[in-house]
Design goal:
0% of the residues lie in helices and 48% in strands. The chain contains no helices and 14 strands.
């Protein structure tokens, strides 16, 4: 593996005291942050991508549930958050996307994937929240990606 392919994750806390894990490559100047319930905040801090799960009972928001478990998968920058739902778990994994363009200023993207490990079907909602005073947050939904302010998520 070439040195530019090495990835890393670090830990920290926001100004509001919320713990988070940095998810990006060693050469990322501004990696994404994953908080304790699996929500992703972009490098600019202007927006947060939340995920909610609808099971047979109700909508479950990870920030409101006691059944959240989170761990890092190995030494790399992969954070896995599990949410208990009827019939099992829904697991969210956040990690940096493979870097295809190695030119300076090339877009970096963060992958947010959800997997239903429950025995029953669920619905998933992605909620994009802008920080108060952050101004307009632009987004575009492509076939398999969400772009926020031109950055892949």
């Amino acid at each position: 593996m070439a040195s530019e392919d090495v990835t890393a994750a670090g830990e920290g806390a926001s100004d509001a005291g919320v713990a988070y894990t940095l998810v990006g490559r060693l050469d990322d100047e501004a990696p994404a942050k994953v908080d304790g319930v699996g929500f992703v905040t972009g490098a600019s801090g202007r927006w947060t991508l939340e995920w909610w799960v609808r099971d047979a009972d109700r909508w479950r928001r990870p920030s409101s549930e006691a059944s959240i478990r989170q761990r890092r998968l190995g030494p790399g920058p992969v954070v896995e958050t599990a949410l208990r739902v009827s019939g099992g778990d829904v697991v969210a994994r956040v990690h940096p996307a493979p870097l295809r363009d190695r030119s300076p200023g090339a877009d970096r993207a963060t992958v947010v994937e959800l997997e239903n490990l429950a025995s029953t079907p669920v619905a998933i909602a992605f909620v994009l929240r802008g920080r108060v005073g952050a101004g307009r947050i632009g987004f575009d939904i492509a076939e398999t990606a969400i772009m926020v302010n031109g950055q892949g998520v």
